[in-house]
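[SOLVED] Predicted holo structure with copper (II) ion

Edit: marking solved, answer below. Original request kept for reference. I posted the sequence and ligand SMILES and asked for the 3D complex as structure tokens.
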Amino acid sequence: MRKKIGIFFVTLILVSSAIYAAKIHTVGQKDRKFTVSELSIAVGDSVDFPNQDEFFHNVYSLSPAKIFDLGSYKKGESKKVIFDKAGVVEVKCAIHPDMKMIITVK
Ligand SMILES: [Cu+2]
């Protein structure tokens, strides 16, 4: 009986983790701005950062919930970041100081 209960819970965990599939969100860089100023995502989700401008951008963050630096890249290129920790992440561009957006990871 105890073994059956154990199997039941293991199955339950496997099924519930399969139901939640991590999502991929998109935040572009267009006209020297991020296409979204705020985004709310779940832990484990990723965000794709396509450059849609004619010039380079360098997306990065120094927020403790996710520190990253994608380096500078040109139009048509995109880089993806996986957000594995809950918290508020301020995303900026190293080339254009006015470019800012917030990702809330829950
Ligand atoms: Cu930029």
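OP edit: The chain has one helix and ten strands. Thanks to everyone who chimed in.
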